[in-house]
Amino acid sequence: MSVETKKTNCHYCGYLCAFDAQVEDGRIVDITPDPTRYPYDASILAGCRRWKMNLEMIDSPERVNHPLRRCGERGSGKWERISWDEALDDIALRLTTLRKQHGSGVVASMIGGPHTSFWPLHKFMSLFGSPNNMGIGQICWNPRIWMDAITFGWTVEADINELTNSVIIWGTNPAESDNSAFWRAIIRISKDDTTKLVVVDPRYTKTARLADLWIAPNPGTDCTLMLSMINYIIEQDLYDKQFVQDWCVGFDELVAHVKRYSLEMAAEVCGVAADDIRKAAEWFADSPAAMVSGRGIDQIGKNVLPTHRARCILFAITGNIDKPGSCLILDKSDFVEEVDLECTFDNWETLEKLSMNTGITPLQSYSGYAQIMRDTNKLNRRLPARYLTSAHPDLVLKAMETGEPYPVRALIVEATNPLLTYADTHRVYRALMGLDLIVVIDYFMTPTAAIADFVLPSAAAMERATFQAHGGVANIAYGGAAAVEPYYERKCDYDIFRELGCRLGQADAWMQETFEQACADTLAPTGMDWETYCQIGICSQPPRSYKHLELDEDGNPKGFGTASGKIELASSALESLGGDRLPCPADNRTLCSDAFIAERESQGWVHLPLITGGRKQPYNASMYMNNPAFREKYPLPVVEMSRSTAEKLGLKAGEGIVLAADNGEARFVVDIIEMKDDLLHADYGWWHPEWDVADGRLGGIWESNINTLTSCSLDQSEPMIGTWSYNALDCMVASDPTPLTTDAIDKGHIGNTRSAWCDKLSSDK
Ligand SMILES: Nc1nc2c(c(=O)[nH]1)N[C@H]1C(S)=C(S)[C@@H](COP(=O)(O)OP(=O)(O)OC[C@H]3O[C@@H](n4cnc5c(=O)[nH]c(N)nc54)[C@H](O)[C@@H]3O)O[C@H]1N2
Ligand SMILES: Nc1nc2c(c(=O)[nH]1)N[C@H]1C(S)=C(S)[C@@H](COP(=O)(O)OP(=O)(O)OC[C@H]3O[C@@H](n4cnc5c(=O)[nH]c(N)nc54)[C@H](O)[C@@H]3O)O[C@H]1N2
Ligand code: SF4
Ligand SMILES: [Mo]
User: Fold this and answer.
1) Which residue did the predictor score with more confidence, 743 or 213?
2) 479 within 8 A of 468, measured Cβ to Cβ
């Protein structure tokens, strides 16, 4: 058999590196990086531990290869292998029956991070008539997108280049989370004496190590920190007066609002030095300056909206917007917009009527979306609707639990493992166990798949085409072709939703028989065909600067896509939806009730602030823990703390520790790092794929899963979007005399010994 070379892409992170795959008889026998195609970067590949997984995982014995239907009790691990036709016919029949009984909102969906293209699922849900898609929206992406859109009329991205005088990296750690060109740019900047680098993070991360200034605020106090920077910049006359006068509204209101946020006041609240805030403010006011933020400020509950608003105001008053070397307003895509791919407008009235968010989270709702779109669309820009209207999990779980406001009885889970990554695992588990139908589409028999009725095998990287378009908020799509047909009976996610949709009366809307055809049609308006896209790996236009000064047909500057056409320092849009015109910091969520704290304190436990989920290579959320080489290196989940905190708690690196809150508890190993004192940081997504998921322990989701403590309850969520908290939390902590189960080590899955690894933990630092 001859060996053919096929151009394809890795999708073990969102970067989508290009590879040449050697294909023999429909099987991939080798892969090599393709230096000719976007986004090739030798240093990125050198730093990546995952790319070999493309060979290891494509035929791993742990992959699900055929459609499976449950034939024992839910979660009993008893499955029958069935054909695709049987699976899809049966699912379609059950969905039809449930829709007849309870209406089209009866099915919900759950998605995760950007592992695949989610628009086919969204399209399926829109056409079915259900608005009940849950996912990362409120906690990962929406807060930033919403606040950018409300303040500037569209989304914004840092434009870091030789013009940039300073960069603030706020609540993000690209050293671990983003092995891409952006991280390489940060490394370059750190070596250049003329560009100042500030990192705002309670942990002294690998990114912070490169900084000229590391600011470690108390979690969730970022809004106060930003407001004091704004106040200082105004008081010291460091703001861009001309830009503010010409292009901003609400400045006088802002001046009065921020007066009380002195450097000293913020220093006290945030637990940082006033002089450090002053320095950061002065550097950022020396325009052009750029800022990049991440989940450190996306997942802080009630503070998420005011913090992102304060961030936008900082950009505006310093003139660090729409200017080269600062932050640029992105362009809408030249290819078909996500909002059209999702078919949201085909069924708008039904979706709006059934949306449980209506009147509860006024911005993250169909009416909120429609209002903001009226403004952004003045400049011909429409945000993706399905993320920004996605249902609040507290409401959908309640509908599953109580049947109110109407029953939700079925669930489609695509590319997520909610028993590990959604808040309040006990609640998610109980709600899911009570459903009539759960369909999980995944590569592996995850704990969530283990309690499904159907597990449908998904085609992974190199077995399917890739088209990453970031929800269409920028004019960029990248990816390429599959190298091989899916192995065994795996299917591309698009095909699954198309075939299910066709069985449910959606055939007219699914004209493109393959994902490749759908992508080709998506690209058509740009004039680029699918083959060219696969050859070069990208279809994009760089964002322009000074777009607000471009002239419209009447010869007037286009301005910004907001109600006033200017940058809204004081937001009329938020006010009209019942929110604050200006950012007001709020209290952080608490996970421990007073009674619980008192009870545990009486038993010697200590109450401390908690942050969770700081990204770490080589893992990704709950993924790749089944990779023996990775587990060899990182066999156990850790809770990080400073040396002084460990001493106060009487703990040493490598010792057992247990964290608890009202909702549950989880066990870890202590790791000592440089970070803010009196604060804990817990790993998230931890489970044990080496355990049999059906043996009652569900792969260990009850052992070291920090989301058994967290909560998405609306009463302590941000009121406009509904963001809950994975950071700026609290917990009770005690030492754990029973060592963590280390089956992977004990059973010889990995060669380490527990003590060798724990010793290494303490010696690494
Ligand atoms: N290796 C790996 N990479 C990933 C992922 C993964 O799971 N693993 N997940 C992907 C996904 S889904 C996402 S959303 C991105 C996230 O990417 P990032 O946003 O870069 O996430 P982190 O690396 O966790 O960095 C967040 C930082 O915020 C800090 N932080 C916590 N609380 C606060 C706070 O209150 N204020 C401030 N200022 N900082 C705080 C934490 O200490 C942490 O260092 O990463 C993506 N990349
Ligand atoms: N406590 C806490 N919780 C958090 C976070 C935190 O920091 N702390 N972070 C939150 C954030 S930002 C996010 S984005 C989520 C991330 O969490 P998720 O994105 O939900 O990640 P996983 O739970 O690992 O689920 C990914 C699953 O998708 C499967 N998969 C991968 N690619 C594909 C594909 O192409 N098709 C299909 N069908 N399946 C695929 C994988 O096998 C895996 O089982 O977690 C959130 N939860
Ligand atoms: S995991 Fe990410 S960085 Fe590594 S090869 Fe794959 S796409 Fe590239
Ligand atoms: Mo995320």
Assistant:
1) 213
2) yes
